[in-house]
Records
---
Amino acid sequence: MVGYTDYGIVKREPTPRPGLALVGDAALTCDPTMAIGCGFALQSASWLVDSVAPALSRDEPLRTALRRYRHEHLRRLNGHHRMLTADARARPFNPLQPLLLSAAARDTTTAATLHRYSERSLPPRNLLSPRLLARAAHVSARALVAPRSITP
């Protein structure tokens, strides 16, 4: 096992120059232990293809297409980047993380939501929704009042 807190976290503008777009680790690295770089690379490449297709068929300027790609990249990955960066730098948990993890161990709905976030199919804003946080608080409070014994 290797652990370190000085991993080079990189966040670059997804469209740094006219006519240039970055995907994957060229644009964003968050945490080497999570092995998410390939997923982000494939997702961002797909967004780039979808964004520039109209420009390639000459239906719109490339500048417009790359602006759309930039918006999509930032909208979909900024939240994940912020949360993963905090974990990669070995920062202490924020107060919501233990709450969500504790509730996920006791509640299949919370666990499924946390799983969808972990596989990056759910944006962080959904993970931090008031409804999910209220559910997690309720599940955790219920466990404090009537703890279950663990049986083998």
Note: The chain has two domains: 10-88, 96-145.
---
Amino acid sequence: MSRVLSLFALPCLLALAAGTAAATSPARAADPTGPVALLGARIHTEGPLGTIDNGAVLLEGGKIRAVGATLTLPANVRRIDVSGKVITPGLFDSLSRLGLVEVSQVRGTADAENKEARISAAFRVADAINPASSLIPVNRIEGLTHALVAPEPGTALIAGQAAVIHLGDGPDLVVRAPAAMFVLLGEAGAERAGGSRATALLELREALADARDWGENRDAYDRAGRRAYALSRLDLEALLPVARGELPLLVNCHRASDLRAALALAKEEGLRLILSGAAEGWKVAREIAAAKVPVILNPLDDRPESFEALDATLENAARLAAAGVHVAFASFDAHNGRNLRQGAGNAVAYGLPWDAALAAMTIEPARIWGVADRLGSIEAGKEANLVVWDADPLELTSYPDRVFIHGVEIPQRSRQLELRDRYRKLDGDLPPAYRHP
């Protein structure tokens, strides 16, 4: 079967996949402390062991205890036969608003955007993430286990601090915060900085210079013995790790010239740069690779929706990867991180190697966001975040049989599936509001 199916068939295929999976995969509660062995699958470890055919993974205490072609299992292990299945690390959305937005058009359920001009760099999305969001189960039952949650651009050039979260249960989903400082250049940056790209770069340079000066003269600042700064004290404090090269600067822009400007700024200021969007990234792929700057993109972006993306192409990911750029995939929204693998399949159809497409949703995001020591691959000692697929995970017709986060198997339930089941049969008893008088 082709790795990529027609986009026109996508809604029907997703509905069919959801219905089939729910019917054949009842919720299963796993003991988070007792050992569990998954046996007989093809395992894409994304680590030193590569791909293992007919392999086994041992989970215990929320960790991966062992993985290999043959394992010596403890006597009390719970064995799960997954012969003929495929196991991958849990998928990672590299830029989302998951947990910050519930209903996009209902302002009271959206906490991703900061319109307070007095505070921008200090804005922390980690403080607003809702672990009870109904969108979390919707995404995790389709294989998403982690996400980088970033602010929605507000009124300021500097949008705020992003955070890495997991999609498991618990009151605190935050894995790493802050994970990056999110900044706008290109058209969006110009719009927030007087109308010119040049002004946006000037403002950003001034903010970095002020942060460094504040860091070196805090005592004088506290005694009112320092000049006025362009940013508030809270913003200066938040921006100082970026100015020192300790915290990545995540810059969103698309046009080739804007990407070059971001690279030049990072070199001049000594910044740890990460590019996002990058619709025309392929045009400067060699320069990005030479600077060792990773790129976050949506592989489905191919329309010239603005003048800064006139040369967008579905071959963007493949061309960047071929030049040696580390690429990770993102949804850039709150609802559809579960569709990452559809984008990955399209990227494969347009030249990206299959292994690189899987890495762009697993180990590459973990490396980019500084959590590869515990996430992103199936290796002994790392967290047990993995997915058992019924077939090739880049096929639209495949679906997760099982999802584990921190070694706990996630029930295959979501609000969407519950609504489907509730109204699947219309000849039974309906809620009072749906009955005829």
Note: Confidence is low (pLDDT under 50) at residues 1-30.
